[in-house]
């Protein structure tokens, strides 16, 4: 497991120039922009870069070589989920530091206690996107997975907008549920988000293991 994590770290930081450009952009946005977009940006970027290591593994028939090493396919899948979580958490920490530095430079008041639950919620939410992308990447490969993900996220976006228009101005159980959620404390909402994302990630993990066990190299 540690060897796989080290491999992915080396693959990630081998692209130093690209990472430096992304970090410079994040630094500028963190200082100049209001709001917490910088945290979302870095966390999502880290998730995408982490999943990119699967493409590096399959390049030039790399999976066939990797599977000769002393670890099984289940360990490989587990490492990918752990690596994505580690990278997302690290990027969140960097984004949070830049966010609070930016607010300090602009002298805009930030209540850390009130902001913290919402900011922490970015980690499980962004990690959920990793849980969606990993099995798709393993199943379809780097090229076809882009098309599949584009269609998948496009359908989700259409459903969200359609549901918003359909339920706007009407009293339904869903609108009542949304109103109830709005009245909950941020800590309770955060725990609910973590629970939902953990459940979805567990399902994704089992699916990825099944895909990897059936994969032929």
Give a summary of the structure in a few sentences:
The chain is mainly alpha-helical.
Number of helices: 9
Overall mean pLDDT stands at: 76
Q: Mind telling me the C-alpha Rg? A: 19 Å
Estimate what percentage of residues fall within beta strands.
under 5%
Total count of strands: 0
Q: Give the topology string: H per helix, E per strand.
A: HHHHHHHHH
Main β-sheet description = none
Give the fraction of residues assigned to helices: over 70%
Spans with pLDDT under 50 lasting ≥5 residues?
none
Your description of this structure?
α2 runs antiparallel to α3 (37-58), α5 packs antiparallel against α9 (186-214) and α6 (112-120) runs parallel beside α9 (186-214). The chain contains 9 helices and no strands. Helices cover 85% and strands 0% of the residues. The mean pLDDT is 76. The chain is mostly helical.
Labels describing this entry:
217 residues, mainly alpha
What's the layout of helices and strands?
Blueprint: H1 2-13, H2 16-32, H3 37-58, H4 62-66, H5 73-105, H6 112-120, H7 122-167, H8 173-183, H9 186-214
Helix pairs in contact: 2-3, 2-5, 3-5, 3-7, 5-7, 5-9, 6-9, 7-9
